[in-house]
C-alpha cells in the first residue's frame, strides 16, 4: 500500500532534535552504514524501508522537508520545487536542485542541492502546499515560464489549468500585472497559450512544438461518431486538412482511455483507429521521442500533408 505524504514526513528523523534530547546521534551514522537509515540530507534521516517505498515526487518532497527542518528560517519554495509541491508535471531537467526564494536574506546556506532565487513576492503569491510554504500555482507558472524554454513551460501551465489550480483569467491577469523583470515576455506568451484541454504532458509539449514549427493550431479533444455511435475523442484535429493527430504515451495503453491489459488496449485502439479512418481522415501518430525532437514531429505532420502557416525555425527541446 503506497505511503501517504504525512506518513513519511512524520517518519523524518532530525539529529538536532535527538541531540537536544540527550540521545547519542552517532547511532544514526552507524544505522546508515548498516542500511537501516537513509540520509536525506545532513542531519536528517528516514528509515530505509520508508525511503524505498517513495516515488520520485515524494522523494523530492522529503528532501524539501529535510531542508526546511534544518534551516533557521522557513524557506519559500518556488519554480520547479513549487511545481512539485503542487503536483505539476515537469520535463526532465539537468538542474535537479531545490529552488528557494530569497528577498536578500538567505534561508540558510545554499548547497549543491539548493538554488536561491531572488524574487519579489507579496503575501497573495504565497500558499501552503504539503505543509511547506510555496509560491501559488499562478506565480509558480509565471516563474517557470520566465525561465524555461516555451514547450517546457507549457507542460506545467496546461496542467495547472487542467487541475483547476488556477484559471485562464487569473493567469492572464497575473502575467499582465507581474513585476517579474526578466523573462516577462516569455511568461506572458505561455500564459496566453496555456490551455486546460491538453490532456497530458505529452499533448502539451506536442501542442507547443506544433505551434513553434509554424503549423496551424488544431482543435483539441475533438469527439468523433459514426453510424454505430461514439468512436472516440482525438487529441488533435485539423478539419481543414482532414487530419487527426494522436500523441501515444505508454500510459494510454496501460491505464488510459481503455480498461484492460496493455495487449487488450492495443487491440481496442486499433479498432478505434480503423473506425476513425473509415470516416475519411488521415491519422498521424507520434510518441515522446518525436515530441522531444521537434524536427521528427514536424516531419510526421508534413508527410500527412499538414502545411505550415508561417516560416519557423524548428528547435529541439532537449538540453
Describe the 3D structure.
With 319 residues, the protein is α/β, with parallel strands linked by helices. It has 3 domains: 1-54, no CATH class; 71-193, no CATH class; 201-303, Endonuclease, Chain A (3-Layer(aba) Sandwich), CATH 3.40.960. It is built from 15 helices and 12 strands. It has helices at 5-10, 15-20, 26-33, 48-53, 56-70, 79-85, 137-147, 150-162, 168-177, 184-193, 201-212, 250-255, 262-278, 288-292, 294-303; strands spanning 13-14, 37-41, 44-47, 76-77, 98-102, 114-118, 126-129, 132-135, 219-226, 229-238, 243-247, 282-286. The strands form 3 sheets. The protein has a 5-stranded mixed β-sheet with strand order 6-5-4-8-7. The protein has a 4-stranded mixed β-sheet with strand order 9-10-11-12. A 3-stranded antiparallel β-sheet has the order 1-3-2, sandwiched between helices. Helix 8 crosses helix 11. The protein starts with a helix and ends in a 16-residue tail after the last helix. The model is unreliable at 311-319 (pLDDT under 50). It comes from Naasia lichenicola. This is Type IV toxin-antitoxin system AbiEi family antitoxin domain-containing protein.
Write the layout of secondary structure elements.
Elements lengths: L4 H6 L2 E2 H6 L5 H8 L3 E5 L2 E4 H6 L2 H15 L5 E2 L1 H7 L12 E5 L11 E5 L7 E4 L2 E4 L1 H11 L2 H13 L5 H10 L6 H10 L7 H12 L6 E8 L2 E10 L4 E5 L2 H6 L6 H17 L3 E5 L1 H5 L1 H10 L16
Parallel strand pairs: 4-8, 5-6, 11-12
Antiparallel strand pairs: 1-3, 2-3, 4-5, 7-8, 9-10, 10-11
